[in-house]
Amino acid sequence: MTMTALGEPCVLLKLGEIILKGKNREVFEQRLRANIKLALKDYQVDIRQRHGVVALFLPEGTGVEVAEAVAARVSEVFGIVLVHLAWRVDKDPSVVTKAALELVADTPEVARKAPFAVRSRRRDKRFPLRSSELDRLVGGELHDAYGLPVNLSNPELTVSIEVDRDEVFLYTNGRPGQGGLPVGSSGRGLVLMSGGIDSPVAAYRMMRRGLRVDFLHFSGIPFTTSESIYKAYALVRRLDAFQGRSRLWVVPFGKAQQSIRASGQDRLAVIAQRRLMLKTAAEVARRHKASALVTGDSLGQVSSQTMANIAAQESAVDLPILRPLIGMDKLEVISEARRIGTLEISELPDEDCCTLLSARNPELAAKIEDLKLIERRLDADELASQLADSIQAYKLDS
Ligand code: ATP
Ligand code: MG
After folding, report:
1. Domains and CATH numbers, the chain
2. Which residues make up each annotated binding site?
3. d(CA 133, ligand 2 centre) in Å
4. Relative to the CA of 228, which ligand 1 atom is closest?
5. Mind listing the pLDDT tens digit for each residue in 213-225?
6. Residue 274 alpha carbon, nearest atom of ligand 1
7. Is the C-beta atom of 218 inside 6 A of ligand 1?
8. In a designed cystine with 116, which of 157, 253, 282, 292 is the match (CB 3.0 to 4.6 A)?
9. Which portions of this protein are annotated as coiled-coil regions (predicted)?
10. Which of 204, 186, 169 is nearest to 85 (CA)?
11. Does 297 contact ligand 1 (Cβ within 6 A)?
12. What is the pLDDT of residues 302-333, one digit of tens each?
């Protein structure tokens, strides 16, 4: 396709909830710009704020493939609801019309004569046509050229035209962004990251609400293989696309698990272990200035996640424990894991450290006093701080 009338490609971003932030909006927008810059560090882009829209300008002569790659990459940044590949054309109604004709020429919607609409906005009132006039002009030309039916209430193809100060932006249907708030605008958290399906989705959900997260994985090493570590690493790498600069710490947990088993309370072992994980995580969080823990718990999913057992875990630490999947069905979690690209990693085989302690008949309502007794024998707080000393760091430079 030759881009004769289309001008230069760029990328336009429509923001979501940030727009509702009133006086704090500027802070959120700054954070978003910094996050966009980090995500697009391999590209040359110039980020410009245009009335509630963020425009990403590319160097003159940039090809459409690069613009598409930028659009795809930036659609992983939280705080954006829609991403449009757009064209910058001259502020001249006849140029805009020609460009619109070319813009839609090869689309499947035109091929099947799908209903369409033109939506114009005139930000610069010096432009000779009002937006309704521009709609009619361009819409009429598209209708005549391609025989498309107009449908203003439910179009399958929308041609959007934004008349700005220096140029006109032209674009069709965009791709959805992730929504949410810019990572970092809600502070820091630490995700307890297994190799399973749930915790990566929990991490994604909290990042989407603006929490910058680091990751802590408990490995059964030296009594298990390191497969679960590779999985955790691969999962964090995938999730890093959504925030950048992620850190993964691995706790060698096998010996501590052995001590828990030695306490002889098989039915309580999983909950006792979970409390020790939480205590260790709280210590790591304190050292790295995270103010919340995040887990993939979902009410009733497994025996350690009955309401009573969740309550028994809650009291192990003072930090808030965020459980974004608490009210989700497993099938919903799985479909989200598929969408965000973690499912195929989670489904790889591994030797989960938790299987070391699983009981045939696990307690469904663990009592705090029983757990405290085990913890006194273990000296759990001291053990948690030793475990926090023993973590190994994995840095991700994506
Ligand atoms: P997941 O799919 O996230 O492993 P799950 O349904 O298997 O969850 P559990 O194994 O009971 O549930 O774990 C509940 C939560 O405890 C996990 O979502 C995770 O946050 C944390 N967790 C469990 N095992 C580990 C581990 N080895 N390292 C770090 N966190 C863990
Ligand atoms: Mg698990």
Report:
1. 8-176 (3.30.2130.30), 188-394 (3.40.50.620)
2. 192-193, 217-218, 274, 296, 305
3. 59
4. 27
5. 999 999 998 888 8
6. 16
7. yes
8. 157
9. none
10. 169
11. yes
12. 888 899 899 999 999 999 999 999 999 999 99
